[in-house]
Amino acid sequence: MNRTSYLNSPVVKGFIIFLSKVINGDSEINHTYIDRKKNKEFVFSTLYEGFEKYHWNNESYNANSDKIDLLVDGFTDSNTNSDLFYKACLDTLEWGAGNKGLSLYTNNSQWLDKLGTSQNVKANLDEALELLDSESPCFTKFGDKYRMNAGFTKIYAFMSPKTFIIYDSRVAAALAFLVTKYCEQEGLSNVPPELSFTIADAQGESCRNPSIKEKGYLFSKWGSNQKKHAISNVQANWILYSAFKKVEHSTYFDDIRQIEAALFMIGYDFPQYAISSNINPKKNNKIKKQTKKDQAVALYEQSENKSRKYILPLFQNNIGLTKAGASTYYQNIKMSKEKA
């Protein structure tokens, strides 16, 4: 895979133009979900609203940005000090996992330990990043000599903050979601190979597979295949950087890290796809067993704004109701609540 050839592909060029309009706020994305941990509804009309509502570890973007700056500085300051580099890796893994007790931290830190010395750790990751950042990356040794997963994508991103994004399950899901919107806009009958970003399951009950089976818009999962993860990460790097460059002087975003943060928020859950396409039946059994009425009542009760104008699109987007059906459900639920 070559960077110039990939970016000059007609379908990639078209998606970059589409994405630049999304980044610039000229195209809406219209996405809604319920954050189960916070028991709060999140509504996004534009990509920038994802950035505005960003949170991780119960902290805002600005609070996390300060921590990321320190982590990036840790890598920058460790150019000649492998011990500092090793510490920066562990600090990054802890930030990304949320704490040291989770497997995302322990499994990755144990893998680093097996490299033997801090000098070996630095040499390994420097080599890996050089491959990933090259004009024609080679991915054959990822999963063997080199590592790529939700923890290591953060390390590479902080080692090269201007060109490398964090590509985890949430960012992957959001990018795939935008690809489906592009395919719908262009009337495509399937997802072009160049835009077939791999995705991953969430830890909990969230659906992070925005495939639309009935339209032929399908995305595969990287699973334990670190090579697939690395390929999609690099493609996402190239596309986001190119799209941002088209609008960087007029967009709300200051850099690709903010765009990545917006995608992270957008990609938390895509319940409408789990329900309509039966994409992820194992993790969504609870959703599947609910009737449409049950789902509508739950959405109505969880929504702070209960106006007709607000609730109807929520029913349509999350349950798959027609406008007329959503209107009927809304009226019936509203009347039953008023009588209660």
Protein described:
The protein is mainly alpha-helical and 340 residues long. The protein has two domains: 3-23 and 54-270, no CATH class; 290-339. The chain is 57% helix and 4% strand. The protein is built from 16 helices and four strands. The chain has helices at 3-7, 10-23, 47-52, 61-76, 82-97, 103-114, 118-132, 152-159, 169-186, 226-247, 256-266, 271-277, 285-289, 292-302, 308-319, 323-339, and strands spanning 31-35, 40-44, 55-56, 59-60. Strands 1-2 form a two-stranded antiparallel sheet. A two-stranded antiparallel sheet has the order 3-4. A hairpin with a 2-residue loop joins strand 3 and strand 4. Helix 5 (82-97) packs across helix 7 (118-132). The longest helix is centred in the C-terminal third of the chain and has 22 residues, at 226-247. The chain is globular. The N and C termini lie far apart (62 Å). Residues 281-289 have low confidence and may be disordered.
Number of helices: 16
Unreliably modeled segments: 281-289
Q: Which oligomeric form is depicted?
A: single chain
Estimate the strand proportion: under 5%
How is the main sheet built? 2 strands, antiparallel
Shape: globular
Distance between the termini: 62 Å
Sequence of secondary-structure elements: HHEEHEEHHHHHHHHHHHHH
Helix-strand makeup class: mainly alpha
Cα-based radius of gyration, to the nearest Å: 21 Å
Question: What is the total tally of β strands?
Answer: 4
What is the percent of helical residues?
A: 55-70%
Number of domains: 2
Question: Largest sheet, order of strands side by side?
Answer: 1-2
Mean pLDDT: 90
